[in-house]
Amino acid sequence: MSFPRLLARVVPWDKETAVAAIESGVEALWVPDGRASSARELGRVVTACAEGDLREGTDFRVTRMEGKEDEARVAGSSPDAAWVVYPRDREIIPLENLVAWGRRILVVARTPADVSLYRGVLEKGVYGLVLDGRDPAEMRTLAAAARAKTEDVSLVPARVVEVLPLGMGDRVCVDTCTWIEGSRGMLIGNGSAGMFLVCAENVPNPYVLPRPFRVNAGAVHSYCRVPGGRTAYLSELVAGSGVLLVDDSGGGEAAWVGRVKVERRPLVLVRAVGPSGNEHSIVLQNAETIRLVGPGGATTSIARISAGDEVLLMEERAGRHFGVAVDETIREK
């Protein structure tokens, strides 16, 4: 069998933590020697211990990354060898080296932040994870983080019906810690029922240098989509906030805010009608560098967009309470 990519370490043995791991979908339990039968009583699960399905020293090896010699030992082993690695203080460079060399490493993760860090090593991530939760709640939290996938959304074409210059107002630039390419950007809207895909400032233009980390997102009151199916006001974002980056196919991924700039600028209102027949709107800075994304990934500057053009938006039922969707009668205009 292929070596599992998601293990839970239940050492010392704790039945409830093992149950939490199995119910959370881990592929194998690493348990103390002599506890394989206890683990198998809980369900059909691969076990790692002296009498288990996987045995340390035979099927996998364990090392702590204390120095260059530890990295060299893993790098010098067979590419088929499986290694469980305890990193030092979330040190990432040795892991990057081992991933680049194609070594099959499973890294011990104790927090959701660890899970996110190790899944992102050299963009492709490490081979697998060993979840080391101290109790059932921690194990479930780690497993949920490990199972989390990119957050896709459904985008539909909407027809622009009005473009109306407004006066001055406060708009928000969201500078992320991510290099944003192509048609990707943020979902922004005056209401939660319809959010427009606003592209990042990643295209060369005669006015300013590209800033591929930035989305000039809109007026301070606007909603934006954040991870977990939630919304936030642009005015709430700060360094460290999570936002959702989306491309024209609806593929989404979490990104982190490094800086938020609020500045007074001339604004413009765009209204569009979605497939539902409902009208949605967005307020953006009135500037050439702000672009809305249309079907197929085409982007149009707010300075050139006009009635009859098509733009992409996410349409859903209105109704949010502190950013969480609620089922109640709400009208947004």
Would you give an account of this structure?
The chain is α/β, with parallel strands linked by helices and 333 residues long. The chain has 2 domains: 6-147, Alpha-Beta Barrel (TIM Barrel), CATH 3.20.20.70; 156-325, Endonuclease - Pi-scei, Chain A, domain 1 (Beta Complex). 15% of the residues lie in helices and 38% in strands. It has 6 helices and 21 strands. The strands form 4 sheets. A 7-stranded parallel β-sheet has the order 3-2-1-7-6-5-4. α1 packs parallel to α6 (136-147), α3 packs parallel to α4 and α5 packs parallel to α6 (136-147). The protein is elongated, with a radius of gyration of 24 Å. Mean pLDDT is 90; it is low at 320-324.
Q: Helices and strands in order, then pairings?
A:
Layout: E1 6-9, H1 15-23, E2 28-30, H2 36-40, E3 46-48, E4 61-64, H3 68-75, E5 82-86, H4 93-100, E6 104-109, H5 112-119, E7 128-131, H6 136-147, E8 156-176, E9 185-191, E10 194-199, E11 214-219, E12 223-226, E13 230-233, E14 242-246, E15 252-273, E16 279-285, E17 291-293, E18 299-301, E19 310-315, E20 320-321, E21 324-325
Parallel strand pairs: 1-2, 1-7, 2-3, 4-5, 5-6, 6-7
Antiparallel strand pairs: 8-11, 8-15, 8-19, 9-10, 9-12, 9-14, 10-19, 12-13, 14-15, 15-16, 17-18, 20-21
